Amino acid sequence: MFVDMKEQEKIFAQISSTEVLEILSKLVRFRTVNPPGKTASCAQFISSLFQREKIKAKLIETEAEKVNVMAWLKGQSPGKTLLFNGHLDVVPPGADWPVDPFSAIFKKGELWGRGTCDMKSGIAAMIASLTAIKRSRVSFPGEIIFSGVCDEESGSKKGTQFLLKEGLIRADMAICSEPTDMAVEIGNRGQMSVEIKVAGRSSHAGRSHLGLNAIHFAADIIEKLKKLKLKSSRNELFEVPTGSLSVTKIQGGLTDDMIPDRCFLTVDIRLLPGDTFDSTLEQIKQEIEKMENPEGIKISYRMHGNFPPCLIPVDSPVSQAVIHNYGKVLGEEPLIRAKSAATDASHLVAAGIPTVIFGPGNSQYSHTNQERVSLSKVMASVRIYALSALDILRE
Ligand SMILES: [Zn+2]
Predict the structure, then answer these.
(1) How far is CA 242 from CA 109, 281, 340, in A?
(2) What is d(CA 198, CA 217) in angstroms, rounded to the nearest whole number?
């Protein structure tokens, strides 16, 4: 049973842009930068917002000051469970911002700052939509649970993965409010990292012929990887329709005058549904093993499969609810696609919870010094989340 006009009015009457902007600005001012990813005070603030509305909330600490916050809004009768999920941690601000990244400056309809787009706007919108449902007293069966998690920017082991493992997240479906610029994203590419250790032999740089230079060999590996065309699946629904590979870190050398005996490379790899962590690692190994290595430099690998790729059917109830209510709120059809970056939807889908990604931020600004979000998109998201939640649970 869809939400009728009268109920919709009741819910929308409980949503004010001043209040949403205030919540979002406060969230941005908590410096939840990861590393180190301390989310305690931010999680505490969110918990207090829910408690003020008489919505049950709880803090779940997984490591010193790495805190998750969960909330539960129960309907009037038993039914399904919908999860609202978002992460509280943000990446470091980096340099050359036009404004202070933690002041939350509002100008020309946009709020600026680290985390405005990725993804405290999504969190604020979900909090506001739960609050509006509660205040409106509109009835629904089942339960909406909210998880504001830590640790997403470093693989989610202390965040969403922890809550799933502990059985704290149990849901029939989920909405993740990562930035999609209001596109309905029904999946995301996976992400894995491979650390490559190159072990040579040190010598005095004045007698370089006696050493085995690990940095020189690592440079050859990089050249090889730059040219490697990954055999990955292809899917045009994805913003980037194939897998990709980038060397993202390099570390080596001890002093100016020593031939380095060690060099470490990190390779970031993105995967499409159908690709596996193991077969991708195998391709990289094979490529490196083909290289000439007469002096016997030793190579070893450590693989971290952080986010499996995921994709849910476009006709799944959770996708359909968001698509339908996007139309209802904005009067047009949404763009439907799948994300190029990874999100916690990976872990939720792997745990059997169909998850749609939908959020007001524009991921073009994620992790940049231009990060900002449009307040009107945040407000539209609040409405779309609220109506979608009720439609899904009433189905
Ligand atoms: Zn994010």
Answers:
(1) 35, 16, 9
(2) 7
Centre of ligand 1 from the C-alpha of residue 175, in Å? 14
- Do the beta carbons of residue 271 and residue 284 sit within 8 Å? no
Q: 118 CA to middle of ligand 1, Å?
A: 5
The b/e string for 360-387 (b: 16+ C-beta within 10 A; e otherwise) is bbbbebbbeeebbbbbebbbbbbbbbbb
**β-pair partners for 270:** 191, 244
Q: How many A from CA of 78 to the centre of ligand 1?
A: 32
DSSP tag of 211: S
Task: Please tell me the distance between residue 108's alpha carbon and the centre of ligand 1 in angstroms.
Answer: 24
Q: How far is the CA of 223 from the centre of ligand 1 (A)?
A: 31
Report residue 159 as tokens: 């965040």
Q: Tens digit of pLDDT for each residue in 208-227? A: 999 999 999 999 999 999 99
CA of 296 to the centre of ligand 1 (A): 42
| Per-residue pLDDT tens digits for 93-148 | 999 999 999 999 999 999 999 999 999 999 999 999 999 999 999 999 999 999 99
Q: Which domains does the chain have, with CATH numbers?
A: 5-188+309-394 (3.40.630.10), 190-307 (3.30.70.360)
Token pair for 267: 């390779």
Cis bond leading into 35, ω under 30°? yes
Please tell me the distance between residue 343's alpha carbon and the centre of ligand 1 in angstroms.
6
Q: Identify the three-state secondary structure at position 292.
A: coil
The DSSP bridge pattern shows strands 262-271 and 244-252 to be antiparallel
Task: Return d(Cα 393, Cα 74) in angstroms, integer.
Answer: 11
Cα 316 to middle of ligand 1, angstroms: 23
**Would you state the structure tokens that stand for residue 67, as one six-digit string?**
């805190």
Is the whole model's pTM more than 0.85, yes or no?
Answer: yes
Q: How remote is the CA of residue 252 from the centroid of ligand 1, in Å?
A: 30
How does strand 77-87 pair with strand 173-176?
A: parallel
